[in-house]
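Saturday, quiet lab. Running sequence design on the structure tokens for the scaffold JK sent over.
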């Protein structure tokens, strides 16, 4: 059964009066419940593309469909109330409490006080900030990470079908950014919201995106595919240049240990070292093998869901798993989505 398309860009173009073309003839579909990461170098039109979806930037030509409706024909104010929007600097109203900030769009839509308070409490719980502690605080009483989470809660207030995120984690330090990314993954899994995420960071895109769309200068679509497919099989030199070095290490963080990667459990040297679990990321398996004492002969036990040992894994097995993941990415639907912008200048 085909996955439903929530957002469709159909030959969208954005040109400015001075002749600058930010986006040229972009066609792209965003599927229900997915996180689509838009990446590319500065000037590739990724933020412009995002802002055309909610008409903060008006497209010059083409169509943008939201659930089949052409947004260029919709009332822009009503449209933005249907779409969540999170930006790097959050944009909370400094004179309003956390509760009041989250309640902004419900108030505009005429929700009653009881319904609004219940939704605020629900969302604060969702983002891990208890209402009893945070509802009456002001933005200047929050940390940067807390403000970012309140921004996400506000964007989700009316349960929009789509959430647009423009470099949402760029303003926090690298260590806490990883924590926010983990929190975002949890929230997105729980809500099932369709997300377009703009980032300049290929590692963030690979970690958070179900698919990655790589744009080149002028908003030309170079490739749209799964993170593994983009890393293992870049569709053009522009994609390869943007990814840079380190594709193999990034793939280790995406691919997982499968039963076919294992050797027999009878080859494990006793006493057995700490195991890894079937389905673990190859990064975890690699770290486990690298930490083995010499007596373990480079072999780590692998356990299944029940905790029973189902096999063993070596460095050669991890390399084979990486090759297997790359081969699978070459044949998945992501590669079939690949686009090489031959007409790009």
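Result came back. Writing it out in full:
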């Amino acid at each position: 059964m085909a996955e439903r398309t929530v957002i469709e860009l159909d030959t969208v173009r954005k040109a400015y009066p001075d002749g600058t073309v930010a986006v040229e003839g972009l066609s792209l579909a965003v599927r229900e419940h997915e996180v689509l990461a838009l990446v590319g170098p500065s000037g590739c039109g990724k933020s412009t593309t995002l802002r055309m979806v909610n008409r903060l930037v008006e497209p010059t030509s083409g169509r943008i469909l939201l659930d089949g409706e052409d947004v260029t024909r919709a009332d822009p104010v009503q449209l933005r109330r249907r779409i969540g929007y999170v930006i790097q600097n959050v944009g909370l109203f400094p004179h309003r409490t956390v509760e009041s900030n989250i309640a902004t769009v419900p108030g505009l839509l005429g929700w009653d006080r009881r319904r609004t308070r219940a939704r605020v409490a629900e969302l604060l719980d969702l983002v891990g900030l208890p209402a009893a502690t945070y509802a009456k605080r002001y933005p200047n009483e929050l940390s940067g990470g807390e403000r970012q989470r309140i921004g996400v809660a506000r964007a989700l207030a009316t349960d929009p079908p789509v959430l647009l995120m423009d470099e949402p984690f760029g303003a926090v330090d690298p260590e806490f950014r990883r924590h926010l990314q983990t929190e975002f993954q949890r929230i997105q899994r729980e809500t099932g919201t369709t997300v377009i995420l703009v980032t300049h960071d290929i590692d963030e895109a690979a970690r958070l995106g179900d698919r990655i769309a790589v744009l080149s200068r002028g908003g030309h679509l170079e490739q749209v595919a799964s993170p593994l497919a983009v890393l293992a099989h870049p569709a053009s030199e522009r994609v390869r240049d943007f990814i840079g070095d380190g594709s193999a290490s990034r793939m280790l963080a995406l691919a997982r240990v499968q039963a076919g990667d294992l050797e027999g459990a009878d080859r494990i040297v006793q006493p057995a070292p700490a195991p890894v679990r079937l389905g673990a990321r190859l990064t975890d398996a690699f770290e486990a093998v690298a930490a083995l004492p010499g007596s373990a002969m480079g072999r780590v036990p692998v356990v299944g869901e029940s905790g029973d040992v189902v096999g063993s894994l070596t460095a050669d097995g991890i390399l084979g798993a990486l090759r297997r993941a790359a081969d699978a990415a070459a044949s998945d639907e992501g590669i079939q989505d690949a686009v090489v912008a031959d007409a790009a200048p």
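Notes for JK: Confidence is low (pLDDT under 50) at residues 338-345. The CA atoms of residues 39 and 200 lie 6 Å apart. Ask whether to fix the surface positions before the next round.
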